[in-house]
Amino acid sequence: MKKTLASLLIAGVLALALNHVVEAKGNAEKSASVISVGATPVPHAELLNLIKEDLAAQGITLRVVEFTDYVQPNVAVLAGDLDANFFQHIPYLDSNEEWSAKLVSAFGVHVEPFGLYSTKYKNINDLPNGATIAIPNDPSNGGRALLLLQAKGLITLRDGAGLTATSRDVTGNPKNFRFRELEAAQLPRSLQDVDAATINGNYALEAGLNPIRDSLIIEGADSPYVNIVVVQKGKENDSRVVALRNALLSQKVKNYINSQYNGGVAAVF
Length: 269
Description:
By secondary structure, this protein is an alpha/beta fold. It has two domains: 33-112 and 225-267, 3-Layer(aba) Sandwich (D-Maltodextrin-Binding Protein, domain 2), CATH 3.40.190.10; 115-218, Periplasmic binding protein-like II (D-Maltodextrin-Binding Protein, domain 2, 3-Layer(aba) Sandwich), CATH 3.40.190.10. 40% of the residues lie in helices and 22% in strands. The protein contains eleven helices and 13 strands. The chain has helices at 2-32, 41-50, 52-56, 72-79, 90-93, 97-102, 139-151, 201-206, 211-214, 239-248, 251-260, and strands at residues 34-39, 61-66, 84-89, 103-111, 115-117, 132-136, 156-157, 170-172, 178-182, 196-199, 217-218, 226-232, 266-267. The strands form three sheets. The chain has a six-stranded mixed β-sheet with strand order 2-1-3-12-4-13, with helices on both faces. Strands 9-6-10-5-11 form a five-stranded mixed β-sheet. Mean pLDDT is 90; it is low at 8-31.
């Protein structure tokens, strides 16, 4: 009787252990079939939602988490709360030492031309002396704004100012422009309060602005600010990331970009 009871107890323990192994394996497989990606709404989340079914056909569930700022998506990938994010370019990633040390570009997808917009003036030559121009307050995009103004002959920056130039690097300012630094997401809403604002392509599109039609000046097609998918270092070749890359860098996505954004987004593949 005792021997039978002991046998039953051992069998029960073994069955319980086996159930835990099976459950753990099932959870691991379930986790491996899901990829969570943080993105700003336009165009990044739109492009990701476009390929959900393509990944589902491969047994991968794509979970898109939308953000309206440029800091939290990197924080979430660093913490492991997200597998990847899709909203930034390499100069922005490199603007933070922790990000650039632990995160990496898995692949590039598109460029969103950066432009100068105004609700008060229709031509760049109409900007008055002493006009206030809003620019992003993060180093990479603030520098991008100033480089755009320099490329169009509106200001001059000191030699070597580079991609992270600031208003302190302005050495020539013939129209005495004043620069107001704001969070990138706030720039479209600032148009009523300033003479002009330099706005990232995604936020311009969200605000109903067409970078080609509505900007006073705009970056050329040679812009180095390619929008990338970012993951933790060492995870670039994760099978889910590879599947995401193949789905995003497809003719389907390129056709959508060309038809949907009217030049406001340009595929790089």
